[in-house]
C-alpha cells in the first residue's frame, strides 16, 4: 500500500481507490458530474421556448394595449396566423380580414401590433392631413426590396418623408405635367403606330405593350432619356414579368427579411439565365439607373449645364442634406419612380382595355365623346380638355376602382395621438345596428385596404360590374362624392406623388 504524504493526518490508499485513516474512509475527489444528453438539452430548449411563447401570447391577449380590440385570439397572440394566410396560402390574408370584419365589426385586430378598419368614413382620420403626423409601419416596408426602402416610399418617419417628398413634388404638380404634353403625345403616337403595324399578325400581350409605353415616359420624365422600349421590334424585353415576380415575394419578405438579403445578392448572370425580362429589370435597376444618377450628380457638382426638366435634377438641386444625395440613396429613389410609375400605370391601361373590349356599348359612348374634341388624330387634345370629358373621366375612375393599386392594406402609425373610431355596425344574424367605439393607442399600426373599400356594396352596388355611370349624375355631369373613397393612390400626406402623371398617361392613351 502507498502511504499518503506526511502531514497532520495520515491516510492509506485502498485498492478501490479510496483512502482510509483515522476519520474513516473517503474518496480523494468528488465523482465526475454527468452532463445531460443532447436529447435532454433539446427538450429543455423546447420547453423554455414553449413557456416563453405561452407567456407572450397570454400577455398579448390580456394585457397588451390592443387587447380590447376585437378579433380572433390567435391573430392577437401570434404573427403566425397572418403568415399562414399570406405565405402558406399565398396572399389570402386580405380575404381573411374581410371575413373577420363580418364577424367582429368595422375595427379588428389582425396581428399582435396592428389594427384594421373597414369603415370608408374612417379614411380621412386614418390618412390624415393638416399637420397630423402619420408614420409608416416597418412591417409593411420590410416586404419590399432594399433599394425601394431607400426612397420616399420606404421612409418610415413622417417628417423625414415630408422632406424627401418636397424635393420632388414640384415635378409632379399639375402645372409641371402639363408641360410634358409633347413628350407624352409622341409616346402615345408611337404606341398606336406599333399597334397598327401589328394588325393582322395575331394576338399579343397588351400588358407588355403598356409596360413599354409607361417605362419610356417615366424614364424620360425622371432621368432625361427614354429606355427605348417602344423603339424595339416587339414588346420584349419589358419590366412587367419581373415586377410581378417581385411583388409575388412581398408577403414572404415581409415576415422573413432574410429573403430580401438573398434577393439582393442574386448574380446578374443567374437573373439573365432565368428570364430576359427579369434581366432587363435587374440591369436597369442595378446598373443603368445608378449610372444615370452618377453621371447626373457628377455633372451637377461640376456646374455643367443640364436639363432642369427632370425629377433627378430636382433632387440634386433641392435643399436635402448631402447624405440624402448619395449615389445609393438617389438610385433607390429612382427605382421607386421606375417601379411605381411603370407597372401600376401599365396595369390600369391593361385593365381598361380589357373592360372596354368586353363592353362595346361603353366604347360607343366614349368614342362619341372623344370625336367631339379630337379633330385630327395626329393632334391629340390638351390634358385640360381631356380631363373635362365626363364619360372618359368616369371610365378611368371606374378602372382605378377595380385596379386597387396595392390590394393589401396600407397601414399608418399615429405617433402623437390616440386615434378614436366612432361608428355603427350591424352584427351577423341581426338587423339592429349598434354603436361601436374603439381607441387605437398612439404608436400602433392601423390600416385599411383599397380592395375592401372599393368593393363595399354600400358605396358601389354590384361592385364586380364595370359601370362608369356610377361616377356620373343623371344629367351626365361628373359626380365627385365617390372620389373620396378611392384609395388606388392612397390618401393623406403620403398620397402617391405620381397621381397626376398616371391620370395623364391614361387620358392620353385614349
Automatic annotation (TrEMBL):
<keyword id="KW-0349">Heme</keyword>
<dbReference type="InterPro" id="IPR036396">
    <property type="entry name" value="Cyt_P450_sf"/>
</dbReference>
<dbReference type="InterPro" id="IPR050121">
    <property type="entry name" value="Cytochrome_P450_monoxygenase"/>
</dbReference>
<feature type="binding site" description="axial binding residue">
    <location>
        <position position="496"/>
    </location>
    <ligand>
        <name>heme</name>
    </ligand>
</feature>
<comment type="similarity">
    <text>Belongs to the cytochrome P450 family.</text>
</comment>
<dbReference type="GO" id="GO:0016705">
    <property type="term" value="F:oxidoreductase activity, acting on paired donors, with incorporation or reduction of molecular oxygen"/>
</dbReference>
<protein>
    <submittedName>
        <fullName>Cytochrome p450</fullName>
    </submittedName>
</protein>
<keyword id="KW-0479">Metal-binding</keyword>
<dbReference type="GO" id="GO:0004497">
    <property type="term" value="F:monooxygenase activity"/>
</dbReference>
<keyword id="KW-0560">Oxidoreductase</keyword>
<dbReference type="Pfam" id="PF00067">
    <property type="entry name" value="p450"/>
</dbReference>
<dbReference type="InterPro" id="IPR002401">
    <property type="entry name" value="Cyt_P450_E_grp-I"/>
</dbReference>
<dbReference type="GO" id="GO:0005506">
    <property type="term" value="F:iron ion binding"/>
</dbReference>
<dbReference type="InterPro" id="IPR017972">
    <property type="entry name" value="Cyt_P450_CS"/>
</dbReference>
<dbReference type="InterPro" id="IPR001128">
    <property type="entry name" value="Cyt_P450"/>
</dbReference>
<dbReference type="GO" id="GO:0020037">
    <property type="term" value="F:heme binding"/>
</dbReference>
<keyword id="KW-0503">Monooxygenase</keyword>
<keyword id="KW-0408">Iron</keyword>
